[in-house]
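Hi W.,

Here's what went into the run:
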Amino acid sequence: MAQNALSAVWVWVAHEKGRILEASREALIVARRVADEAGGAVVMAVIFGQEDEQVLAELATYGADLVYVAPEPGGYAPLSISRRLAWAWDHVVPPPGVLFCPGTRMGREIGLRVGAFRGVGGVSDVVRVRWDDNGIVCDHLAFGGKVQCTVQGVEVVILRPDTYRVRPAPRPLRVSSLPEGEIPAPDVFLVEVRKADPRTVPLEQAEFIVAGGNGVRDFRLIWEFADLVGAAVGGSRVVCDDGRLERSRQIGESGTIVSPRCYIAVGISGAIQHVRGMQNSEIVITINTDRHAPIHDLASLAIIGDAHAVLQALIDEVRKERVAAVPPVGTP
Ligand SMILES: Cc1cc2nc3c(=O)[nH]c(=O)nc-3n(C[C@H](O)[C@H](O)[C@H](O)COP(=O)(O)OP(=O)(O)OC[C@H]3O[C@@H](n4cnc5c(N)ncnc54)[C@H](O)[C@@H]3O)c2cc1C
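Here's what came out:
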C-alpha cells in the first residue's frame, strides 16, 4: 500500500468493567490526529467483548468513526486476539495502514505479535507520532529511555502510556462486527486474580501513591501511613540520591512516570522534573510548609504544615476510625 494513501487507522482498545483504559484513550486520540493529518482516514476501534453502551459512548467521545466488535476469547488471551487481528487485517475493507496499541502489558504483547504474524514492522515506547508525505513517523524511546530514535514505515505502533494529552474529539460512531472467522482458543488461562501488594506493585501501575521529598526527615512515617492506607511509596530524586529511598522509587522525568488515582506529595517542592513524572495523577494532595511551593499548583487539596506533624495526625486519625469501625466484642 502506498503510505501516502492511508484510508484506515486501527486501534486495539483495552477496556475493563465498562470503561476504556486511559492508555487506550491516548491511542484513540493519537489515531484520530494521524487520520486527520493523512487527509481524513477512518479511525476503527477494535474491541473484544460484549457491545457495551458505555464503552461505545467513550469510543465516540475519543474520536473513533467505526467500532468492530469481536467476541471475547476468554481468559488472558493476547495470542488469540493477535491472531484474530492479523486475520482481520486481510479480511476487513479498508485494511489498516497502521495499527495503534496502548502500551499496556497486553497491548505490547498484541501489537508485537500482530506485527510478527503479518511480517510488518512494529515499534514500541512511542512518544510522538506524525504523518508526512512519506507515511507515519514515530519517535520512540530505547535503552530504558536513554535514547530517542525516529523511525518511518512501521505498521504497528505501540504508544508509551501517560504521554499524550487526552481531549474529547467527538464523532458519530458506527458499530460493526468483525467478519466471521476462526477465533483460536486461548492457550493461556487465568487461574486466579490476587490483589497486588502496594509495597511491591510497580509504581507505574499503582493507583494510590504517597511520595516523600526533601522535606521529610523520617521516612518511617511515610511507610507507616502508606501501609495503613494501602498506598505505594515513591519519592523525589533528592531522597533517592541520598538513600532515604531506593532508586527504583524515584518519580519524575529521570525516574518513573506515574498516573495514580491519588498522589500525596509530602515535602516535595514541585520541580519541573518531578512534576513531569506525576502530572497525570487524577487527584493530587500536597503537604508542605511553604504555601508558595509550586507543587500546590497541581493540588486538589493543599495542606500547609509540617510533614511529620500532618502524617502523624493522619496515621492517628485512620487508626481511630478503624478501631471505631470494629464492633465491640459481644455485638451480634
Ligand atoms: C536532568 C535532571 C533530571 C531530574 N530528574 C528528576 C526526577 O526524575 N525526579 C525528581 O524528583 N527530581 C528530578 N530532578 C531534580 C529536581 O530538579 C529537584 O531537585 C528535586 O525534584 C527536588 O526534590 P524535593 O522537592 O524533594 O526537594 P526540595 O527542592 O529540597 O524541596 C523540599 C520541599 O519540602 C518542603 N519542606 C521542607 N521542610 C518541610 C517540612 N518539615 N514539612 C513539609 N514540607 C517541608 C520545602 O518547602 C520544599 O518545598 C532532576 C534534575 C535534573 C537536572
